[in-house]
Amino acid sequence: MGFRRPLAFFLLIAVPIALALSAPPPKPAAKPAPAASSSAPASSASTAAPASASSAAQEAFAELEAVPAKPGDPKAGQAKAAACAACHGMDGNSTDAQYPELAGQSEQYIVTQLMRFKSGVRSNAIMAGMAAPLSPQDMHDIGAYFAEQKPLPGVADEASVELGQKLFREGDPARDVPACMACHGPDGRGNPGARYPQLAGQHADYVQKQLQAWHDGQTWGTDPHAQIMPTIAQRLSEAEIAAVSSYVEGLHTAPYPGNAAASAPAPSAAPASSAPAGSGR
Ligand code: HEC
Ligand code: HEC
Fold it and tell me: Does the beta carbon of 127 lie inside 6 Å of ligand 1?
C-alpha cells in the first residue's frame, strides 16, 4: 500500500543530498540488516558524537531495530493505539499543537521513532514511558494503523509563505541548505522506505520546536540517519525556521489512505528499500 515510493526520485535527489550531509553514507535501504547494524554506530564514531547521546542508548536502539517483525497489522494496531488517543487523537489527528500529528505518517517512520524513544536516543520523558511497554511488533501494528488514517489539512501563515516556500522548494545552495522537498517530497508526504517523515499538515509549533532544538544541538542518536536534520537545522536562522514550519503545516497531500496513489510508479529495481518491515504491503 503505502510503501512503494518514487524510488528513482529518491535515488537521484535524496541520496546524493543525504550522502553529502553525513560523513558515513547512510544506506538507501535505511533499515540496516541485522548483520550490518552493529557496524553502523561504530563507523559513525568518527563524526564526533555529541556527548549527550550515550552509546548504551545507541546500542539499545540498534538491538530494537534488529528484532525481526512482521509488517504491521492495522486492526491489531487500532486496539493498541487506544493508549495514544489522549494526546495524539484516536485517528492520529491531535488537537493540541504540542502533540505531533500521526495520521498518515508512515509505519516505518513511526516505528523508528518509537524505537528512538524506547532506547533513549530521542529523549522525551512522556514518550519514553509510552514506548517502554511496546514490543517491536506492537510498534509496527500501531504504525500501520496511524499510516492508514487521514490527516486533517492545516493552514500556513500568509506572511511567511514566500520565505517558507523558497526554503522548502529550493533550499539555499549558497549556504549548503538543501531543499526540504528533496527528501520530504514536493507535497510534504515524506518517503516511507527511506524513513523521511510526512511534514504536510504537521503542527507548525511542533515542527518549529524540533527544528530549533536541532539548531541548538539536539540529536536523535548517533547513527548517520540521525545526523541529517541537525546538520540542516544548524544552517537555518530563527526566522527561516518559523517560516518553513508554518509553510509545511499548510501543505496538502493527494489522496489518502494509502498515500501512494499520486506517486510515481514504483520501480522494480528497488534495493530492498522497504525490507524487512514493508515488503508485504
Ligand atoms: C501524554 C501525552 C502523550 C501520549 C499519551 C502519547 N504521546 Fe506520543 N508524543 C507526545 C509528545 C509530547 C511528543 C513529542 C515529543 C518530542 O517533542 O520529541 C510525542 C511524539 C510521538 C511520536 C513522534 C512523532 C514524530 O513526528 O516524530 C510518535 C511516533 C508518538 N508520539 C507515538 C505515540 C504512540 C504510539 C503512543 C501510544 C502508545 C503515544 N505516542 C502516546 C505525547 C504523547
Ligand atoms: C537529506 C534528506 C532530508 C532533507 C533535505 C530534509 N530532511 Fe527533514 N528529515 C529527514 C530525516 C531522515 C528525518 C528523520 C530524522 C530521524 O529519524 O532521526 C527528518 C525529520 C524532519 C522533521 C521531524 C518531523 C517529525 O514528525 O518529527 C522535520 C520537522 C523536518 N525533517 C524538517 C525539514 C525541513 C524544514 C527541511 C528543509 C529545510 C528538511 N527537513 C530537509 C531528512 C531530510
Answer: yes
